[in-house]
Amino acid sequence: MDDLTAVEELRLELEEVRASRARIAASGVAERRHVERDLHDVVQQHLVALIVSLQLARELLDSDLPATKAVLDEITADAHDALESVRDLAQRVYPPALRDRGPADALRAVVAESGARVRVEATELARDENVDAAVYACCVELLANVSGHAGTGARATVRLWQEKGAVRFEVSDDGVGFDTGTTSRNGGLTRVTDTVGALGGALELESEPGRGTRVTGSVPLGS
């Protein structure tokens, strides 16, 4: 009976691994499609508008100087909008702050831009591109959960540190909390679980109604 139980547990674990990999693959495809849509619908539209405006300015140049100046002003504004769209797209794909300075500074940049009531605490971390990206993505997802579920005025703290060959992260809040025994994990927590699990890490969740939520995870260096 014990052998049968062990086999059943192994089968369930393998099924969960397969399901997790499928979710990760689907998430990657969805994100690539989102980026493709933004390139087509936003950036391309800006560039087309610039081309049309430049053609109009060329036609007006010899006959109507004030109108030409007005068109050039529009071109300048469109160029700034296009540049901002490209920067936003690059920020979503792989933030420059994450590449240059690591997950702690990248998270501070996100918090500063959002104006959220979040404190980021971090010790010095070893740099590892895959780990940096995973920890950053997990913390951003968890902060989105805080914003969506912790309640108005909730404050959050993000902690990053290195321990026993892994980068550990913790996102805690003083919000409304929930009963972990009766509440199913939402899409954000599932994505974080999949991301950490794919790199051989682990995730722990603690929450109680009225006492906030704490999510702690670890991602092995070199994973």
Low-confidence stretches: none
The CATH architecture of the largest domain is 2-Layer Sandwich
Largest sheet: 5 strands, mixed
Q: Which shape, going by the Cα principal axes?
A: elongated
Instruction: Return the structural class.
Output: alpha+beta
Record the strand order, biggest sheet. Answer: 1-2-3-5-4
Assign the CATH topology of the largest domain: Heat Shock Protein 90
Strand content: 15-25%
Cα distance, first to last residue? 36 Å
Number of domains: 2
SSE topology:
Layout: H1 2-60, H2 65-93, H3 96-101, H4 103-114, E1 118-122, H5 129-149, E2 156-163, E3 166-173, H6 187-198, E4 202-207, E5 213-220
Parallel strand pairs: 1-2
Antiparallel strand pairs: 2-3, 3-5, 4-5
Helix pairs in contact: 1-2, 1-6, 4-5, 5-6
Account of the 3D structure:
With 223 residues, this protein is an alpha+beta fold. It folds into two domains: 2-93; 102-220, Histidine kinase-like ATPase, C-terminal domain (Heat Shock Protein 90), CATH 3.30.565. The chain has six helices and five strands; from the N terminus they run ααααβαββαββ. It has helices at 2-60, 65-93, 96-101, 103-114, 129-149, 187-198, and strands at residues 118-122, 156-163, 166-173, 202-207, 213-220. The protein has a five-stranded mixed beta sheet with strand order 1-2-3-5-4, covered by helices on one side. A hairpin with a 2-residue loop joins β2 and β3. The model has no long low-confidence stretch (mean pLDDT 81).
What's the gist of this structure?
The chain has 223 residues and is of the alpha+beta class. 62% of the residues lie in helices and 16% in strands.
